[in-house]
Each structure stands twice: as structure tokens, then as C-alpha cells.
Amino acid sequence: MTTARDLLIVSMDVPAADRPVEQGDLSLALAGAELLDLAAAEALTLDDDRIVPGSPSDVRDGQLARAAAALSRREPYESVQDWLWRRGRGLRAAYLAALEAEGSITRQRQRFHPLSSGRVTVADGPDRRRAAERWASGEPVLAALAAAVRIQDAPADELARLTSDTVVTVLAAVDEAVTELAGERQRRTIEDAAFDNIWRGQ
What we know:
Elements: H1 3-13, H2 23-40, E1 44-47, E2 50-53, H3 62-69, H4 80-88, H5 91-102, E3 105-108, E4 119-122, H6 126-136, H7 140-148, H8 156-159, H9 165-201
Antiparallel strand pairs: 1-2, 3-4
């Protein structure tokens, strides 16, 4: 299991009904989670905000191995922000597909809409239990990523335990990217509303 997989499972298991997780926000956070796991595996280091790939490491998780293979190995190395936007594109869907192929999630098809993809739920099993245990323990990295995508408010006492410069840099970049994406959604909503008003006035 990886931080990204844990975060995806948590996002489906625990968010409040009035705080749905935006798919784009989650994809950005998943890309950040991959960086943190690769750093922990010594597959990369950060030089300020630049991702410096290390020697190939023994990364067994398929999605994380693909992330490692996607690291830019040309100088000047990619920034964390650039990685989040590049790697994050469609990442939630990729993780969902991988979990579904493994049988870790199920789709509850609607009785009267057989062609509907159905509601996605996490299947009971080791993956769900591990993610739940990590979530219940208040592990600070998972808590901070969850806060970035608005699953919960950031617990100050947990975030204070984040002492690694790499962790702090990545989490700050995720938070900034999610905020930027939220601003873009708001801008588009305003533009769409203005366009509708023009048509209504004619």
C-alpha cells in the first residue's frame, strides 16, 4: 500500500456529505503523495523545489513504479508544481482503475439504470483496513493531504509534527495547486453565469 492509495480509499470512505472531494483536487494530491513515497524510498530528493531523481529503487507498487519512471531526468529538473500538474492529470481515474482491477473497490450499479457506471465503494479487505488504521492514527502526512483536498480541517497539532523539508515543500505545493484549481473553477463558473445572463437578456 502507498500513501496515494490510502488517500484515495480515505476520500471514498470518510468525507462528509457536504464536503465532496473534487476529482481534480484529489488527482493533484495523489501526485503529491507519490512524490512523498518516492522520497521515502530514496528514489528522489528535492533541491529547493526541484525534483532530483535518484538511482532506480525497488518500488513494487505498480502505480508508484510508473511514477518513478515518469520522473524527468534532465536538468534543470522539474519543479514540484510542474510535476503535480503533469502527473496529476487523470491520476484519480488511473488509481481507481487499478484498485478496481485488484478487486479493492466495487461499483454498485443502479437497478433502473443498468448502463450507469454506478457508485464506487471500497471493498472490505486489507487495503481498506490499512487505510482506516492510518487515518484513525492521525498520521500527519495523510492528514495534511486530506486537509488539502478538504476532506477535513488540518489538525494543527498533527501538522506541527511535519519536520521534513521535503514533506513540507510537497504539501505546500499541493495546497497551492488545489487553491489555484479552485480559483479556476470559480472563474469559469462566473464566466458561464455571465454568458447565460447575456443570452437571457436577448
